[in-house]
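Posting this for the archive.
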Amino acid sequence: MKISWLLAGSLFCHGLWAQELTLTTGEYPPYCSETLKYQGLIPHVVSEAFKSEGVSVKFQFLPWKRAFRLSEEGVVDGTVHWYESSERRKTHLYSDPILSETYVWFYLKSAPLEWRGYQDLADRKLAAVSGYTYNADFFAAIAQVPLQVQFVTRLRQSFDLLLSGRADLTLENIDVGYYSLRQFYPVSTVDLFATHSKPVMKVEGHLLISRKRANADELIKTFNRGLAKLKASGQLEKMLLESRSGLYEP
């Protein structure tokens, strides 16, 4: 009972007593999706981190630009999950990294890839998706190596190009890539694909709390404490493995 009253007093002092936060996000399976169990890995992690600190969360799924704008304007408490950006930091406080996303080359097992740097890809045909946030090194290599890149409008088109032999490899987030393959093709086709063990790039996703919230700093500290608990207990790693195993999928 003493511990319960201490926790209650702490939450009351920090303005978090009986609080429910509203966060926006968008469709980005397997990380975020209304169709997935727990609404995806990231909402599950965020909910559990806050829950461990006595705060509940509900999510609104919106187009990404609108999701950010509502948070920026203070209509909602925050938004998830976003990469590093000096512009976004002007209007939001950033949490500790929730997850490190790894981008790798996808290719067919029948056409193995040896890759140490972009120069090794000079004779390869690449597929990439227009509008994706590839890093500066990738775009520089397109001009400097140069790389043979065919840009498409949808991820499935990239994989279709590999299967048809019109491209040799495509760059994709390893979790998004394998999730998408499972949605697009039968298991026998998914098994034709492989990924290279050397990452092309890594990016970290964060929870953002609007600077218009009076208690924004305390909310970030509260979330970071809960996130640290998930990491220390091994629960976050367990959730990631379950997501990668397809256990969040309907």
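The beta strands are 20-25, 56-61, 78-82, 92-94, 99-108, 125-129, 148-152, 169-173, 193-195, 201-210. The chain has two domains: 20-100+203-245, 102-201.
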